[in-house]
Amino acid sequence: MRLKKKRKRVKMQVKILFNSGSIEESLSIGWGVSFLIGDSVLFDTGEKGPSLLNNTKEMKIDLSLIQDVVISHDHWDHTGGLWDILKQRQDINVYACPGFSNEFKRKVESSNNHLVENRDFMEISKDIYVTGEIRGEYQGGDIFEQAVVVDGDKGLTVITGCAHPGIVKILDLVRKEFPARPFYAVFGGFHLMNQHPRNIHSIIDVFKDLGVKKAGPTHCSGTEAENVFREEYGNNFISTKIGEAVSI
Ligand SMILES: [Zn+2]
Ligand SMILES: [Zn+2]
Predict the structure, then answer these.
(1) Relative to the CA of 226, which of 48, 105, 218, 239 has its CA 20 to 30 Å away?
(2) pTM above 0.90, yes or no
C-alpha cells in the first residue's frame, strides 16, 4: 500500500534578539528590532553592534550558524548591528532591496560577505521567504522595504521591520503568493504611531478577515496600536521582548 505523503513544513522558533524591552536586565535594550529565525536566518540587527552581540552571548546564540541576514530597510535602527556581525563572519548572504543606499551596499561588499539585491519574492532557505522590495513613503521620499515570510507547520508567519509601505499592503502581497495557505502569526513593527484608533481597528479587521491567529505589533507600532491589538487578540497577542521566542 502506498501512503500519500503530506509535505512536511518547517517547525521552528523565532528568538527576539533586540527590541525596546527585555525579560532580563542583563539583555541590552534600545531602539530597533532583531529576530533570529531558526538557527540560520537573522532578520534585522537593531541599533548597535555591542548590544546585539551582548544579547546573542547572553542568549547563547551560536553566530557561526547564521547563513543569511535579511535587512528590512535601510534605517539605522535596523542596520546598526549588521557591521559587527559581518566582521565576525564570511560568506554569508545579506539580502537587501535594490533601493537601499549605495553606502549600505558598499559597506556590505567591502566585508567578506555577499550582497544579494532582491526585487522579487523568493525563497532563501527551506520554507523561509523574503517579499522582495516594496515601496513606501517616508518623510516625503521613497523608502524600500522587505519582510520575511515563513511557510511553517502552523501556517504563514510574517515578520516585519517597520512596515513603512503599510502592514496591509505587505499582507496583501503575501496572500497573493500563498492563496491557499492559512495565516498563523504576524509580528514586528507595524508603523502605526499617531494613527487614529479607528484606523487601528480597521487594520485589525483586515487581520481577522485574513484569519491571522496571532499578532505582535511592537517597535514603531506605537503604544495605542499595541494596546488595541492586545485587547483584541487576548491570549493570542505575541509578546516580543528580548529573550522571548515565538514558536511557529
Ligand atoms: Zn524602525
Ligand atoms: Zn524605519
Answers:
(1) 48
(2) yes
